[in-house]
Amino acid sequence: xNTLAPPxxxxxxxxxxxxxxxxxxxxxxxxxxxETGADYLAVNAGxxxxxxxxxxxxxxxxxxxxxxxxxxxxxxxYWLTVVLISVVxxxxxxxxxxxxxxxxxxxxxxxAVALAGIFAVWYWVExxxxxxxxxxxxxxxxxxxxxxxxxxxxxxxxxLATEALGLGFAWGTVAFSTLIAMTYAAWRLGGNxxxxxxxxxxxxxxxxxxxxxxxxxxxxxxxxxMGAMWTSALFLTVIVMLVADEHxxxxxxxxxx
Length: 257
Prior knowledge:
Elements: H1 21-44, H2 48-69, H3 75-99, H4 104-126, H5 137-164, H6 169-188, H7 193-216, H8 228-251
Helix pairs in contact: 1-2, 1-3, 1-7, 1-8, 2-3, 3-5, 4-5, 5-7, 6-7
């Protein structure tokens, strides 16, 4: 069952997947990998923040170039782009917070205003914010700009809730899961499909960040102590399996409904 209104254009023309259950599972795992992967590369692997940002930024540019050149939705490149955007979005927020000392209150507010601005311009130009209508280059550029901003905003909001406001990783996971459940309930009760989709999409980022921190951080700091490497490897493995299955189904004409 779809979690948005029925597609308005044929699937072969749309450049993004339908928002079915698998979509949300992969999305949440991508957000967690963005949190744990960025920490692993910068800290555990010893690359440092600067090198990690440069390498991930370059890889994202390549992935976006390939994605934009595709003529239809292609699972592997789409989700690779999402994973890389997740890492880069995390790095942007970390740069502001840890590198430049910007308050999480300020960065969260700034990203929220930036996201609202992107939505406003996107709607003003295209008269639609639906993910079922991403079939032109311009709309796709609006879409990916929005996705990057949601990851940066979600990272800042998640850190604000779990660290600055003292909610903690476990309660942060519960809080954001509850908000997503409430958004789903609102959609089921007749709420606007496009609005509830984007609210849920934004909320999955701090959920993934809280979940990632809860799994990776040591028990001393309220985590489960799995470590960034093992958590990232586990989630990436599941993502690859789900995307591979989706690729097979998509190629044979079978889609989740």
